[in-house]
Amino acid sequence: MLGNAGEMDRQKMRSVVFDNPVARRRLEEILHPLILEQSKIELAAVDGNKAYAVLTVPLLFERLTFRATLWRTVTVDCTQATQIQRVITRPGLSIAGARKIIDAQVPRAVRLQLADDVIHNEVPIALLRRQIEALHSRYLACLSATAACA
């Protein structure tokens, strides 16, 4: 599904994957193990002087095999209405297309339940930064055993 200049035709890929659950599962069966393996490689390469590393895994909760690799999980959350508004800014995506993508993911309530921590992403950037800084401070405190991390 290549477009111009050998790049992936994202619109065509989306229509195949989100219109066909069997194709989506097959694609996930191929990609998720590769992503997990690459994540392990990248974690192993992290400088030992770092307190912790951050992996960005967009579909983390779709495959819980990732959780065994991780110390903490964070989800970045917003309402479905905001999520749809953000998704439809991508070229070629309608509201119906955005809903298909969202419906194919683990539901928001499940993600919120599974995550150890939540960053609320419907606030001004200054408040978003404060959330991230507070979480970073908490993680550092947890790692130095000066605070409980449950």
Notes on the protein architecture:
- With 150 residues, the chain is mostly helical.
- Helices cover 51% and strands 5% of the residues.
- The protein has 6 helices and 2 strands.
- It has helices at 10-19, 21-44, 80-87, 95-103, 108-114, 125-143; strands spanning 74-77, 117-120.
- Strands 1-2 form a two-stranded parallel ribbon.
- The radius of gyration is 18 Å and the shape is globular.
- It starts with 9 loop residues before the first helix and ends in a 7-residue tail after the last helix.
- The model has no long low-confidence stretch (mean pLDDT 85).
Keywords:
mainly alpha; about 150 residues; about 5% strand
Radius of gyration in whole Å, from Cα?
A: 18 Å
Return the string of H and E elements.
HHEHHHEH
Which strands sit side by side, in order, in the main sheet? 1-2
Low-pLDDT ranges: none
Summarize the main sheet.
Answer: 2 strands, parallel
Give the % helix: 40-55%
Alpha-beta content class:
mainly alpha
Brief summary of the model shown:
By secondary structure, the chain is mainly α. It is 51% helix and 5% strand. The chain has helices spanning 10-19, 21-44, 80-87, 95-103, 108-114, 125-143, and strands at 74-77, 117-120.
Produce the secondary structure layout.
Blueprint: H1 10-19, H2 21-44, E1 74-77, H3 80-87, H4 95-103, H5 108-114, E2 117-120, H6 125-143
Parallel strand pairs: 1-2
Helix pairs in contact: 1-2, 3-4
